[in-house]
Design a protein that fits this description.
Oligomer: single chain
Shape: elongated
Number of strands: 5
Helix content: 25-40%
Structural class: alpha+beta
Strand order of the largest sheet: 1-2-5-3-4
CATH class: Alpha Beta
Number of helices: 5
Number of domains: 1
Order of helices and strands: EEEEHHHEHH
CATH topology: Ribosomal Protein S5, domain 2
Distance between the termini: 78 Å
Strand content: 15-25%
Radius of gyration: 19 Å
CATH architecture: 2-Layer Sandwich
């Protein structure tokens, strides 16, 4: 069995981490060994969101990817895959980076859940104040 050449990118979002490998060809793209459409059944247009980096650089039919993702929920995983795919693309060809940056697909979203503080009901919600 011959090893296929690939480019790898790592994407993170909230508590999700993803390793994306991009290959040349027209096979189906998979997430954790399952086709993209079946893995993200609950999110409509999930495939369109994930494939956005390939669509921006107009390589949709020429490349496919495999992604290993863990942690977080579906939205975090979806956006982690998208970032990993964009990073793999510009690792493959550095000239694609300005196009991906213009489409805002290169920057990692730093927002994460704020931790809960003691004596608070949630991260910021405090108990009701009573003057007397």
């Amino acid at each position: 069995m011959s090893k296929k050449e690939y480019f790898e990118g790592i994407g993170r979002r909230k508590t999700s981490t993803c390793r994306v490998r991009i290959y040349q060809g027209d096979e189906t793209s998979t997430v954790n060994g399952i086709p993209v459409e079946e893995y993200f059944v609950s999110i409509p247009d999930s495939k369109k969101t994930i494939m956005e980096p390939l669509a921006v650089v107009e390589l949709t039919g020429k490349y496919y990817f495999t992604a290993k993702v863990n942690g977080g929920g579906t939205t975090g995983q979806l956006e982690a895959i998208q970032l990993g795919l964009a990073r793999a693309l510009y690792k493959m060809d550095e000239n694609l980076k300005p196009e991906l940056r213009k489409a805002e697909l290169v920057t990692r979203d730093p927002r994460a859940v704020e931790r809960k503080k003691y004596h608070h009901k949630k991260a910021r919600k405090k108990p009701q104040f009573s003057k007397r």
